[in-house]
Amino acid sequence: MKIEGTVWKFGHNVDTDVIIPAMYLVTNDIKELARHCMEGVDPTFTEKVQPGDIIVAGKNFGCGSSREHAPMAIKGTGISCVIAEGFARIFFRNAFNMGLAIFESSGVFQGIQEGDRISVNQDTGEIVDHTNGKRFSANPIPPFMQELIQAGGLMSYLLNKRRP
Amino acid sequence: MPQSIAEKILAAHASQDTVVPGELINVRIDMALANDITAPIAIDLFEKSGVESVFDPERIALVPDHFVPNKDIQSAMQVQTMRTFAKKYHIKHFFELGEMGIEHALLPEQGLVLPGEVVIGADSHTCTYGALGAFATGVGSTDIAAAMITGEVWFKVPESIKLTYRGQLGKWVTGKDLILYTIGDIGVDGATYKVMEFTGDVISHLPVADRMTMANMAVEAGAKCGMISPDEATLDYIRPRAKRPFECYTSDPDARYAESKTYDVSGIEPQVAFPYLPENTRGISEVGTIPIQQAVIGSCTNGRIEDLRLAASVLNGHTVDKDIRLIIVPATPTVYRQAMAEGLLEVFLLAKAIVSPPTCGPCLGGFMGILGPEERAVATTNRNFVGRMGHTSSEVYLANPAVAAASAILGRIGSPEEL
Prior knowledge:
The structure holds 2 protein chains of 2 kinds. Chain A has helices spanning 16-19, 30-34, 45-48, 69-76, 89-98, 108-111, 143-151, 154-162, and strands at residues 2-9, 54-57, 81-84, 102-104, 117-121, 126-129, 135-137. Chain A is α/β, with parallel strands linked by helices. In chain A, a hairpin with a 4-residue loop joins strand 5 and strand 6. In chain A, helix 7 (143-151) packs across helix 8. Chain B folds into 2 domains: 5-262, Aconitase, domain 3; 271-418, 2-Layer Sandwich (Aconitase, domain 3). Helix content of chain B is 30%, strand content 18%. Chain B has 14 helices and 18 strands. Chain B has helices at 5-13, 39-49, 73-88, 103-109, 141-150, 175-186, 201-204, 208-216, 232-238, 299-302, 305-315, 333-341, 344-350, 401-410, and strands at residues 24-28, 31-35, 60-63, 93-94, 118-122, 135-138, 152-156, 160-166, 195-199, 225-227, 259-264, 271-273, 281-283, 294-297, 325-328, 354-355, 376-379, 395-398. In chain B, strands 4-3-2-5-6 form a 5-stranded parallel sheet. A 5-stranded parallel sheet of chain B has the order 16-15-14-17-18. Chain B has a 4-stranded parallel sheet with strand order 10-9-8-11. The longest helix of chain B has 16 residues, at 73-88. Classes of the chains: A alpha/beta, B alpha/beta. The A-B interface holds A 13, 15, 17-18, 21-23, 25-28, 40-41, 59-60, 63-69, 86, 88-90, 93-94, 97-98, 142, 144, 153-155, 158-159 and B 24, 37-38, 40-41, 44-45, 48-50, 66-67, 72, 74-75, 77-78, 121-124, 126, 138-143, 145-146, 149-150, 154, 156, 188-189, 192-193, 219, 222, 224, 277, 364-366, 383, 385-388, 392.
């Protein structure tokens, strides 16, 4: 399956406090969380982002708190996936568990610019920047985590397994 | 096969003889933790699953500490969700106001997290319990929902980094300074996915409270755990508290490490981490003149009785600068009572500090000390990200309790030596 979208670019060490500031952690409502997505780094982001857009960032994306509200807020804006040089481990885990597509790929931070049109082939991991023609490859997703994605997240995976 | 402490604990909880870094395993958990921010999502997922009971009502801890005492109606509703769930499923360790403390100070104090255990918490600072020789790590709410059903969690076995500390610590140099110094060296992603194993003479002589401060901030270097093999000091702390039998594991001398580093810490000064990352550290003599408006002493990093004693030793006989707000947050009711019995509260109030009930509030910009535009705070907390304590133009400088107390008196970031 292929994801295609327009890029919003962020830096290194984008932490969960800027993805969704703590003052908004009083709800589980994904639409309400999405209204404040990235507010700590770009207060106008939610006015500009369109469903299907893609976030590209540097190393250590999602560092800091374990708040699952961070991938929820991103997913709630309609962002189709996040591609980064690297992810902090709890964010990485949360994204797979709750069903936000993420890809680790080196070179994307330098090679892809804001506004570029890019596509990601989820099966092969190939990332193509259609604006500048550059190609990147995402790190392969371990088989267990692919099962999580196919099931639609950890809870569905678990409940499918428990059914006789 | 030689194994590290982390590998031994994971193998035992996966019913395997050994585990190898990179291996994906399912492990039995001894305790699952969530707070008033992360529990409601886990509870919602649990309720939607249709499962009718939790795996073990004695091995789930629900601690409403972040926005409690309830800061607004929505936070009150989050705690109501927890309270109702705890009653419905007979969760033994739900902490109502009066018993509630900051989770990572509270659970060790109450003997609910023990050496050799696997503990997961929907809070990134769950890694604190590694100081007691537990494999403890932060996860998300979905992980907690799943664990409340199965009593298990999936892990990729992490590699370990061995960090050895040698030398003599100078006056005013604490566990907080050792971990800030280390993060300053390896960076905020210097240990991503890995276990930071702290060892050496300095660690052997370090009080358990300081060890918890170090393990607490392992996540600020991206680590999965910060771990210390249990010794006599650990057992002295644990024995009077433990609510369950436990087993101590220690790393084999020839265990494999992804990396080993040795720090000679004899000459290091108290450290200050500048905005907006915990890796931006400087020795106190290199800070320059940074005026502040607020100082916060508390949190899961530095809100234990030892931290309050250190702050009181600096504040005793002084008054905080007239332009400074000093907020002191004892981490648990027991710490609060002990501070009262030892006369520390008197010292704080005479110095014109305020003493808050236990809460995470100010550390994450929740309530009880929010910073306005362009305000600066020195804090004994763990993060100094953009907007962490309030307005996005405010700044947080991380330091130990002695430096925070001295700074409150001086009106700028400074050392107790200057008083």
